[in-house]
């Protein structure tokens, strides 16, 4: 049974030891952010802040909604979100993600729901009615959207996009955030609405059942309604209700819904912000489109999920290690490539992807790399590492060993200059290139060259390769006899 709302998810997190209730009063100004950050660092349970300074009792914040958990169950919060066992490994989650997304389920429109318990129109629609946190020292403002989703509709085709795009509060009735032209929201805004000098209606949804932000934050291909994929992952349709002031639908059980319009050509400074790269990439904000608020609807005693992004591992890295890996693996397999597994080691802040594959012919790794860079997720996967089939892509130690022993420092490294990368927030580019998104890609081909003779290819010296099976079994069965505890 899928979770019907955020609250059912919280109940399950608590049962699984994944939730820390915090009754002590906390300040939305920096303290909440620091607690969430330390919870990531310690891989501690997700904090639920129950008393926030200056806000009524009942107005709560959930931190680290998909953060990493303790060793052996790192992906517990994502696994629980998908109704799987908390110990599920990343490979298992990726395969399940691919399996379920192939069977999308359309949403169901219902007449009302808890998100309509309070309807605030006009001046009453005040963003600062909610305990919006100021997360990191140096941020450009208070961020209301860090684990939410933005609903917009293509004016020509009716395709409805759900994406996670950060949102800073400018004032009681306006917000701003990255609207990248490479993202679906940017394509709709710049190429359609703004080009026709029309306002773009939006709905921002904060606090949903747990699968929605995972999929809205993934790279679902152009033209696909994320809500159908979410239905597939849940195994149940998402229930939607109509908005009050815009022609869009939102999840009926959402905690908070903000409705409004983005005017064409309006810009206001947004940022800087502590980002998923692990840095605040700018010292000042920059002009971005403005979300003008027309209405807010919310549940009684609303709960706001918050991700406090920064150095790995935060919610963004854990999520992308499953969803982006799933998208790429599915895409590569659909091209007929004999790929066994892919991994985005969370330590690399979703900048690097490892592909574990058979190599049917020489120089095959280049085909893989180009296919990845050509896919929509390729927009952030600047580093591609291709390893042989015998290397577990999800085991970073094995990957590093392979990379630095099989990849030739000259012919194994292949660079693509002047390639498009995520603008504004990339950290390794020259400042002027950051504005235009001019970057580069790099492939590390860490596979044994296919044209080498078998006798020229080194043989791994490891427990599972260097001893006959019967010796391995004898040693394993006698292990405690030797005096070892385990
Ligand atoms: C917590 C979180 C925050 C994100 N913030 C942004 C952001 O501010 N801007 C952005 O373009 N993408 C952001 N992303 C990544 C997008 O959500 C992701 O690229 C997704 O594919 C966008 O949806 P789309 O493919 O429908 O455009 C964020 C993802 C997550 C999980
Ligand atoms: Mn999309």
Give a structural overview.
The protein is globular and about 75 Å long. The strands form 4 sheets. Strands 5, 6, 7, 8, 9, 10, 11, 14 and 15 form a 9-stranded antiparallel sheet that branches. Helices cover 26% and strands 24% of the residues. Helix 9 links the parallel strand 18 and strand 19. It is of the alpha+beta class and 486 residues long. It has 2 domains: 301 residues, Electron Transport, Fmn-binding Protein, Chain A (Pnp Oxidase, Chain A, Roll); 129 residues, UbiD C-terminal domain-like. The site of flavin mononucleotide has 21 residues, from strand 8, helix 5 and helix 8.
Can you summarize this structure?
The protein is an alpha+beta fold. The protein is 26% helix and 24% strand. The chain contains 13 helices and 21 strands.
> What is the strand tally?
21
Query: Whole-number radius of gyration?
Result: 24 Å
| Envelope shape | globular
Strand content: 15-25%
The total count of helices amounts to 13
Q: What would you call the structural class? A: alpha+beta
CATH architecture of the largest domain: Roll
Biggest sheet features = 9 strands, antiparallel
Return residue spans where pLDDT drops below 50 for at least 5 consecutive residues.
none
Mean pLDDT: 97
Count of discrete domains? 2
Q: What is the CATH homologous superfamily assignment of the largest domain?
A: Electron Transport, Fmn-binding Protein, Chain A
- Cα distance spanning the termini: 38 Å
State the CATH topology of the largest domain. Answer: Pnp Oxidase, Chain A
**In CATH's first tier, which class of the largest domain applies?**
Mainly Beta
**List of distinct ligands in this structure:** flavin mononucleotide, manganese (II) ion
Share of helix among residues?
25-40%
């Amino acid at each position: 049974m899928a979770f019907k709302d955020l609250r059912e998810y919280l109940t399950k997190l608590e049962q699984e030891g994944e939730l820390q209730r915090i009754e002590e009063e906390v300040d939305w100004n920096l303290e909440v952010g620091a607690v969430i950050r330390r919870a990531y660092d310690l891989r501690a349970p997700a904090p639920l802040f129950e008393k926030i300074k200056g806000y009524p009792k009942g107005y709560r914040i959930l931190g680290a909604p998909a953060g990493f958990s303790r060793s052996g169950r790192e992906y517990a919060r994502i696994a629980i979100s998908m109704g799987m066992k908390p110990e599920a490994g990343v490979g298992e989650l990726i395969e399940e993600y691919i399996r379920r997304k192939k069977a999308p389920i359309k949403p169901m429109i219902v007449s009302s729901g808890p998100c309509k318990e309070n309807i605030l129109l006009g001046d009453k629609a005040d963003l600062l009615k909610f305990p919006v946190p100021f997360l990191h020292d140096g941020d450009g403002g208070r961020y209301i959207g860090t684990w939410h989703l933005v609903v917009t509709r293509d004016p020509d085709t009716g395709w409805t996009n759900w994406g996670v795009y950060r949102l800073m509060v400018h004032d009681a009735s306006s917000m701003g955030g990255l609207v990248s032209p490479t993202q679906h929201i940017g394509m709709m805004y710049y190429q359609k609405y703004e080009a026709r000098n029309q306002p773009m209606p939006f709905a921002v949804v904060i606090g949903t059942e747990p699968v929605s932000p995972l999929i809205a934050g993934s790279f679902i291909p152009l033209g696909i309604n994320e809500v159908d994929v979410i239905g597939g992952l849940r195994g149940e349709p998402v229930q939607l209700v109509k908005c009050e002031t815009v022609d869009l639908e939102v999840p009926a059980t959402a905690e908070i819904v903000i409705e409004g319009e983005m005017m064409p050509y309006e810009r206001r400074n947004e940022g800087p912000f502590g980002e998923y790269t692990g840095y605040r990439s700018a010292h000042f904000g920059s002009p971005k489109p403005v979300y003008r608020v027309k209405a807010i609807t919310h549940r009684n005693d609303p709960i706001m999920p918050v991700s406090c992004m920064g150095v790995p591992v935060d919610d963004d890295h854990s999520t992308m290690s499953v969803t982006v890996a799933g998208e790429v693996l599915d895409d590569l397999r659909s091209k007929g490539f004999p790929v066994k597994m892919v991994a985005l080691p969370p330590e690399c802040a979703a900048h690097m992807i490892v592909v574990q594959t058979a190599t049917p012919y020489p120089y095959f790794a280049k085909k893989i790399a180009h296919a990845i860079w050509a896919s929509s997720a390729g927009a952030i996967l600047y580093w591609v590492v291709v390893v042989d089939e015998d290397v577990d892509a999800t085991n970073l130690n094995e990957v590093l060993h392979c990379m630095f022993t099989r990849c030739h420092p000259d012919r194994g490294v292949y660079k693509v200059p002047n390639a498009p990368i995520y603008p504004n927030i990339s950290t390794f580019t020259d400042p002027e290139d950051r504005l235009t998104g001019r970057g580069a890609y790099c492939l590390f081909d860490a596979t044994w060259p296919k044209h080498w003779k078998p006798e020229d290819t080194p043989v791994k010296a490891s427990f599972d390769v260097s001893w006959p099976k019967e010796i391995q079994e004898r040693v394993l069965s006698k292990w405690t006899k030797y005096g070892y505890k385990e």
